[in-house]
């Protein structure tokens, strides 16, 4: 194996801080090495920018670029730990994601199963929407920058991101003229044409191009050279996906074609809107900005649970209908539950799966359409928020609709998924730690599911604590004879004591009181 002068130089420069192991890969924006953080004893990925890029950016501009990426914290974005310069080498340190890139999987398998392609697109879209919401464009969305780990997608390389115009406030561009981040096959027409100002719709185009390749097996435009590809991007329409793969649903083909529109105004206005098109038919689609807050429409869904179940019999979910994050596996065995005001006990549970996130607005919409029910909100909130203001009976009906064995978790099952076998007080341990959950006024509102990945439970579920209370299958009766149902986990404004996994509250099936209460489903393995 030929010696790598850059590897040797970097290893010497970082000695005492990081131990370099081997090269992981190369790309247009640098070389990535596997390393070990010697202080924290963790495996990391270290990306080194080429000397030409350093000469253009300079150390100061590089630090500004990477600062943008360091502010991003999302379950589908690879975390960035550090950025620095050593021996005139610019580098940044990221979490090492075990698995493979989407590029590698496509090279090995070709077109992906439809469910996998749509799930990956939805997860990448969720990550992009989060980044766009805080003012950051990716500008180089492509299969090589999408890593697949434990069946989920993580977007990497926001290091070349450009601040949106409203964030820069008119300051000079970080990327500047003459350096065009991006890869021709996935580059939007306006980016390929050298437009100075891009917005979220450029990333939407790239995501649509990636989904096109997942469905068809190749990007929408190929050619013998970058110039030839760019010429096609600017002038030719893409070949419809259904001419190559007739099994692609018409609404998915329409979404991809819309995402690949030459004119940005003809595309979905956001990554969220693009994902919405993939999961909903044209009849149920709505675009446009959403109000941050939404009110419960009291009585809008005043239906008994049995009535709802009858309405959805024969309307099983389509392949793309799911909760936000798939299922987290809770192995069968003994689990410590209870505590606080309840006796501490040990229960034995069979293996089961639980939604890895709270059921989202987007997922619940498919149920409403199948059941022909009105939504429990006045104005639609973001599709990646947890759905709330759902009655206990409606939540049970949704779970049964989505999966033949689906249901709300028992209190013991919910605690097992949140606390692990050792019965810890919170998913991360026995003491409250700020920043791990959307609770204790970490924010003043609901947030997209998965926004607090550091609170992930031993089973792999997020938001078990905070964001929205969650229904469980435990009932009681008030002194007045009213049926009450248990809720767990707390909401964004719940203090740590009441957000502990052992705590539960009791509430009636009354929509007026449920605007901070959501749910997740369980089903047998």
How is the quaternary structure best described? Answer: single chain
Look at the helices and sheets and give the structural class.
Answer: alpha+beta
Task: Determine and state the CATH class of the largest domain.
Answer: Alpha Beta
Query: Gap between N and C termini, in Å?
Result: 47 Å
Number of domains: 3
Q: What is the mean predicted local confidence, pLDDT?
A: 83
Q: DSSP strand (E) fraction? A: 15-25%
Annotated CATH homologous superfamily of the largest domain: paralog of FGE (formylglycine-generating enzyme)
Note the total helix count: 16
Gyration radius from CA atoms, angstroms? 24 Å
Largest sheet properties: 5 strands, antiparallel
The general outline is: globular
The low-confidence parts are 161-180, 281-325
Helix share, percent: 25-40%
Instruction: Classify the fold: give the CATH topology of the largest domain.
Output: paralog of FGE (formylglycine-generating enzyme)
Question: Major sheet: order of its strands?
Answer: 1-2-3-5-4
How many extended strands? 17
CATH architectural arrangement of the largest domain: Alpha-Beta Complex
List the helices and strands and how they pair.
Layout: H1 5-13, E1 18-27, E2 30-37, E3 42-48, H2 51-70, E4 80-86, E5 89-95, E6 100-101, H3 102-109, H4 114-133, E7 146-149, E8 152-155, H5 165-168, H6 189-192, H7 200-216, H8 226-235, H9 241-244, H10 250-259, H11 271-279, H12 305-312, E9 327-330, E10 333-339, E11 342-349, E12 352-355, H13 361-371, H14 392-402, H15 411-419, E13 469-477, E14 483-488, H16 496-499, E15 504-508, E16 517-518, E17 522-524
Helix pairs in contact: 4-7, 4-11, 7-10, 10-11, 12-14
């Amino acid at each position: 194996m030929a010696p790598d002068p850059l590897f040797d130089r970097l290893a010497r420069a970082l000695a005492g801080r990081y131990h370099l192991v081997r090269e992981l890969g190369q790309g247009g924006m640098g070389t990535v090495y596997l390393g070990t953080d010697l202080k924290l004893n963790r495996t990391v990925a270290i990306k080194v920018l080429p000397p030409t890029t350093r000469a253009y950016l300079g150390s100061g501009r590089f630090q500004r670029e990477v600062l943008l990426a360091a502010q991003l914290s999302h379950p589908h974005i690879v975390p960035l730990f550090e950025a620095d310069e050593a021996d005139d080498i610019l580098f940044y340190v990221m979490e090492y994601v075990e698995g493979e890139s989407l590029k590698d999987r496509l090279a090995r398998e070709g077109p992906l199963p439809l469910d996998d392609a749509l799930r990956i697109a939805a997860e990448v879209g969720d990550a992009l929407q989060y980044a766009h919401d805080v003012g950051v464009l990716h500008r180089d969305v492509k299969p090589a920058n999408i890593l697949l780990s434990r069946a989920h997608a993580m977007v990497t390389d926001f290091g070349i991101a450009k601040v949106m115009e409203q964030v820069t406030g008119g300051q000079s561009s970080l990327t500047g003229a003459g350096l065009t981040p991006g890869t021709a096959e996935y580059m939007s027409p306006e980016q390929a044409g050298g437009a100075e100002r891009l917005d979220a719709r450029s990333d939407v185009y790239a995501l649509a191009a990636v989904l096109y390749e997942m469905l068809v097996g190749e990007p929408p435009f190929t050619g013998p050279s970058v110039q030839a590809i760019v010429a096609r991007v600017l002038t030719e329409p893409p070949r419809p996906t259904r001419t190559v793969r007739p099994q692609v649903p018409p609404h998915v083909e329409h979404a991809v074609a819309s995402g690949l529109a030459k004119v940005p105004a003809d595309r979905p206005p956001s990554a969220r809107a693009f994902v919405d098109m993939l999961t909903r038919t044209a009849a149920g689609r709505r675009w446009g900005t959403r109000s941050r807050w939404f009110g419960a429409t009291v009585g809008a869904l005043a239906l008994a649970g049995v009535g709802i179940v009858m309405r959805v019999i024969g309307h099983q979910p389509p392949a793309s209908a799911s909760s936000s994050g798939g299922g987290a596996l809770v192995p069968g065995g003994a689990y410590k539950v209870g505590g606080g005001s309840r006796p501490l006990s040990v229960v034995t549970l069979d293996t089961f799966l639980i939604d890895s996130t709270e059921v989202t607005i987007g997922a619940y919409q498919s149920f409403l359409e199948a059941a022909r029910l009105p939504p429990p909100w006045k104005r639609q909130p973001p599709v990646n928020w947890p759905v709330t203001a759902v009655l206990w009976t409606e939540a049970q009906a949704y779970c049964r609709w989505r999966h033949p064995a689906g249901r709300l978790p028992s209190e013991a099952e919910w605690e097992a998924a949140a606390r692990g076998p050792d019965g810890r007080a919170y998913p991360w341990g026995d003491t409250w730690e700020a920043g791990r959950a959307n609770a204790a006024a970490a924010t003043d509102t609901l947030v997209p599911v998965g926004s607090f990945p550091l609170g992930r439970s031993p089973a792999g579920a997020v938001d078990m604590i905070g964001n929205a209370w969650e229904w469980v299958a435990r009932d009681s009766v008030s002194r007045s004879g009213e049926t009450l149902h248990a809720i767990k986990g707390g909401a964004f404004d719940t203090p740590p004591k009441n957000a502990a996994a052992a705590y539960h509250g009791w509430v009636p099936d009354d929509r007026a009181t449920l605007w901070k209460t959501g749910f997740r489903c369980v089903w047998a393995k």
